[in-house]
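Category: protein sequence paired with discrete backbone structure
Discipline: computational structural biology
Format: plain text, a pair of labelled lines
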Amino acid sequence: MSKKTRAWLVLLIFLNGYVSLSLELVVLRQLAFWVGSSAVITSIIMGTFLGFMSLGYWMGNSQKIKNEQIPAGLGVSFLVIALLTLFAASFPLVTYYFSVMYSHGIISSVIQTFIYSFAFLSIGPFLFGFNTTLLSRCLHDKDKNYTGNIMAVDTIGSVLASMATTLVLMPFFGVNNTIGLIMLMAVGCAIVAYRRWWVWIMGTLLIIAGAYLNSNHMMRDVFGILVNNANSTISVQEVDTMRVLDMNGLPMSMYDTESGRGADYINFVNDNYIYTLPRNRKYKILVLGAGGFTAGLTDSFHEYTFVDIEPTLKEISEKYFLGQKLTDNKHFVVQDASQFLKNTNETYDLILLDVYSNSYQIPEGLITAEFMARIKSRVADNGIVLMNMITSPSFDDAYTRVFDNTFHSVFTQNTSRQVIGEFTPWNPESITNIVYAFYNKKNDGRIYTINKTPVIYDRY
């Protein structure tokens, strides 16, 4: 084996490792639009990916595959990987998959992810493992002690993919263009492995299909996607005078261009807590989960800090959602909510937590007692904490009951729970917006008993 041939084989191992992990990260990002990014969803995808890759490692050692057949096998394999990347990661096709799931009554995100993983994340990962073994066999013909180098090169490719895909490609070039690059790399590997005219033709057709389905035209004009980066997929839908800001497949904020009103729960917060604030001084308001910046929208007096991890949110909201610039008293911080609370020493008169978009896609780290304790530490004396939740008004599911227990384990006194909108307590499937409130006022913990009831002194 010549040095040139060995160099090409090493390059293919590197690209195989790069493409495999990059595809996994893109899939996780695309599915977050529909099923969220909880630990359960991630474990299903990663488990399927690694399981079939291990099977590929095993099958690549089959003695039925002769060495002279390896180049053709690699060429076909990389073309199939490019094809599966097109189906597994392209937003239009993923959207069609979930529309089929919902039309057949399959609404569980866990079941949807399981079916998706076995349909689209079985053959591709199998081929990644299969390719690694075939390439290793070629290199072992030259040097039986090359195993360590092979694993190192494959791992370096994966490490580079993990950094480049999440830190550079998806944030700055978009998820759709990252998919195109993955397909281009896979096709390039096929051509390097097996230089035949039909490989060139098939690879070219795949790249054209990928470029069309993942084009900016398709994203913006057909699906209305304004942002599609590592954090979020954002679109703005408009029906009559009502605009809806969607993030990752969920309505995050509403705004009526005629009345200036927002979603019902935001109207409740604005009408009862924000627009009633005294003007004897400038109160400090912290909003965790900026949404469409409708909290306190018309208040240009008090000081607001909006915190969200999506850096484009302010620009998108001003340009496409609100149609107006935010007033100068609104400050936007791009940061994780928990990290912001950890790093700030500021206390706030009103804290609004608005990161729970529905009861299925929940940022798990933000429903813990530890996170709520951080919020409590940042509320000023006589200040108020508000949490917008989407749960069962009548405590009909375990999630609602456990969250309620968690909330009261931290905010033990001076709390309320306001149901927004109409509901029936007799329907166990009824869920709606519920605003939890904590009032940071002194409370000595006394109770009234038959023996001691000084209510007249407490009241007057």
In short: The two ends are 96 Å apart (CA to CA). The chain has two domains: 3-225, 233-449.
